């Protein structure tokens, strides 16, 4: 539905027929860690997150799960290879 509270005129997944269904009744502005994310919209000079009504809570335990501007370090899992099996696989190919 179309937001009638803070982000007037934009599509909002929290808007219901009775009004905003979020606990506070309206979305909160972004925090400084959100700057540069692709999921930000600006309404009347204030920036809001398109995914979360309270972005500050997503940054409390580390990185926001929806942040597009943050590079995540993915560790390569190194498996221990049995040398006998590896030599047999090499012979077959």
Question: If you had to describe this structure to a student in words, what would you say it looks like?
Answer:
- The protein has 93 residues and is an alpha+beta fold.
- 15% of the residues lie in helices and 13% in strands.
- The chain has two helices and four strands.
- It is elongated, with a radius of gyration of 23 Å.
- The N and C termini lie far apart (58 Å).
User: How widely separated are the two ends?
Assistant: 58 Å
- Count helical runs: 2
Show unreliable segments. none
Percentage of residues assigned to helices? 10-25%
Give the C-alpha Rg.
Answer: 23 Å
- Number of DSSP strand runs: 4
Order of helices and strands: EEEEHH
Mean pLDDT, as a whole number?
Answer: 82
List keywords for this structure.
about 90 residues; alpha+beta
Tell me briefly what this model is.
It is built from two helices and four strands. The protein has 93 residues and is of the alpha+beta class. The strands form two sheets. A two-stranded antiparallel ribbon has the order 1-2. A two-stranded antiparallel ribbon has the order 3-4.
How would the blueprint of this fold be written?
Elements: E1 15-16, E2 19-20, E3 40-43, E4 46-49, H1 55-58, H2 83-92
Antiparallel strand pairs: 1-2, 3-4
């Amino acid at each position: 539905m179309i937001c009638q509270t803070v982000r007037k005129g934009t599509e909002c997944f929290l808007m219901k027929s009775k009004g905003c269904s979020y606990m506070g009744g309206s979305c909160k502005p972004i925090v400084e860690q959100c700057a540069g994310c692709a999921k930000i919209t600006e309404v009347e000079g204030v920036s809001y997150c398109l995914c979360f009504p309270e972005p500050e809570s997503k940054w409390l335990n580390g990185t926001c799960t929806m942040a597009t501007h943050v590079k995540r370090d993915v560790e390569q899992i190194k498996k221990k290879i049995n040398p006998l099996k590896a030599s047999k696989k090499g012979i077959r190919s």
